[in-house]
Design goal:
Distance between the termini: 38 Å
Shape: globular
Radius of gyration: 15 Å
Order of helices and strands: EHHEEEHEH
């Protein structure tokens, strides 16, 4: 998979490479949208998704993660995008999301959805835009 990652980093969709302990810690301890997410729920989400990991090429250590819920034909939802605090500011997140976009585009998917509270500018640089017709979208919420 080609990408515009900084030198010394590699991206992969190989689920065997994922550091699931690290991903769970990142999300459940530091990601506002997934705080306190139970490990069993995280593992189930990983199993049912297309997962992207970014790795330090020298050590093999995972430094970033993104998850895509998709049927690989008509729909994709990008979620759980996380870059380790120690490597933020290097362009890893933008390169990872660009790789996700480029991986999905040939499948014929018409749109990739995502939700963000604070990274609109980053995603806009990659081509994301606000919903054209937000009045046509609805959500069903469950209390947990």
């Amino acid at each position: 998979m080609t990408s515009s990652l900084p030198d010394g980093y590699a991206i992969s969709t190989d689920p065997a490479r994922l550091d699931t302990d690290r991903v769970h810690a990142w999300l459940s301890e530091d990601a506002y949208w997934a705080l306190d997410r139970p490990r069993a729920q995280q593992d189930k989400a990983l199993a049912g998704s297309l997962n992207f990991g970014v790795y330090d090429a020298a050590s093999g250590e995972q430094v970033a993660y993104a998850r895509v819920v998709t049927d690989e034909a008509t729909f994709a939802w990008l979620c759980d995008v996380y870059v380790d605090r120690s490597v933020r500011g290097k362009g890893i997140g933008k390169a990872m999301v660009t790789a996700v976009r480029d991986h999905l585009k040939p499948l014929g998917i018409r749109r990739i959805l995502l939700a963000t509270r604070d990274a609109h500018g980053v995603y806009e640089e990659i081509g994301f835009a606000p919903l054209e017709h937000p009045d046509q979208w609805m959500a069903l919420y469950f209390t947990v």
